[in-house]
Amino acid sequence: MDILIGLQWGDEGKGKIIDLIGRDYDIIARFNGGANAGHSIYHNGKRITLKLLPSGIFYPQIKNIIGTGVVIDPLALQAEVELLQTIISDTEIINRILISEKAHLVLPTYKYWDIYLEESPQYRTIGTTKNGIAPTYSNKILRQNVRVGDIFSKDFEAYVFQILNKQYAELQALGQDMPAVQELYDNFLEACHFLKKLQITDTEIIINEAIKNNKKVLAEGAQATLLDIDYGTYPYVTSSNTIASAACVGLGVSPKLIDKIYGVTKAYCTRVGNGIFPTEITGALADELREKGGEFGSNTKRPRRVGWLDLPALKYAVMLNGVTDLVLTKADILNGMSEVPICTAYEIDGETKTLAAPTCVDNAPKPIWKFLDGWDAPLNKIYQQTQIPKELKLFISFLEEELKIPVKYLSTGPQREELIILGN
Asked: Which of 2, 19, 39, 325 is catalytic?
C-alpha cells in the first residue's frame, strides 16, 4: 500500500495528484477526517470539490473506500454523490463506493455544537469549518456515538432520537439557534436510508485481501501534517491524526505493508484559520499570490493566509511521515518573481534550528531567510523535464538536498495533465 499526504497546513493540491496517479491503482482509500476536507479536481474542464469521496471516484475501474478512520455525515455524502452524478452524468458512481461499517456517523446536532463552541466567548476560537467533526470524534472517544453499521440495527432510530433530543435540549439551554429537532431527525434518517444503497462492509478485510493478491492500494489523507491533532500546531489543528502512520489505523493495515509515501508540498505555504504561521506575509503581495493561486478554502471559501516556504516545518513533516517521494505544486504561481524567499531555519530564544515543530509558544520563531533566483516561464506549456527553467531546477535541487528525498512530480498548473515526472 502507498500513502499520499500533505506536508503543510493543507490545500497543497493532493486531490489533483491522487486523481492523476490514481489511475494506476485498484483501490483508493480515504483514512481520516470528514466533510471538513476539500479536494479540488479538474475533470473534463470542470472544477469539482470532493469532501468525503476518495479522489479516484472518476475512474470506473477503481474501488473507492471510505475507511474506518473517517467520520461520515450522511447528508453531506448523499449531497456529494447526487451532485457528482449530475455533473459527470454517471449514475454508476454508487457502485464503486465502499464504506467501512466501523466508521462513525456525524449526527445533525454536532455541527451546532461546533458552531456554539466556535462562537461562544467561553471557549477558544479555533477557526473550524463548523461541520461537526470535533464533536463526532469526541463522542467516539467517549464511546457514546453511532457507527455506520448501526443503521441496520432495529434499535438505531430510537437510539438516535434519544441522543438528538438530549443534545437538542442542552443546546437550546445554551441559546443555540437550530431547526426543529424533528426536522433534524427526519433529514438524518432519510440520508441514512441513502447510505444503505452503498456497499457497507468490513473494508479492512477488502484492503488486506487486495494487497495479498498484489492489487495496488493508495491511501488518501485529508487535511495535512501540520494540522495533526497530536503533532500539528495545537490547538489550531483538525480533530484527527493526519500523518502517514494514521493510514494504518484508519484503514486497518499493518505498517509492514507500506511501500511508498508521497508527500505533497506547495512552493510556498498557506493555511486557513487561526494559529502560528512563521513565514506569513501580508499586504499587497499576499493579496496578489492569494488571487493568482486561487487561495480560498475549497469548502468555506475563506481567504487562505499566505507565506513563504518553511523548510524547518517541512523537514519536520518529512521526518514524521517517512516521505519517500516529494510532490511539488504551485511553482507556477511564483512565476515572474525576481527572487523566491525560503525560510531555512528558525531563530528561537537565540538558538538556530533547522528542524523544528512550529508549535504555539510565547516566543514565536523568527525566520532565517535564503533568497533564490526566480523563474519566468509559462510552466503550464512545459511537458518535459528538459524544458524546466534553470532557476526552478535549482529551486528543486535545493529542496532535494535539504530534505534528502527526491522530487518525483512537479505540478505545472491546476489541470490533470499539467504535471511532469522528474528523475527516473
From this structure: 39
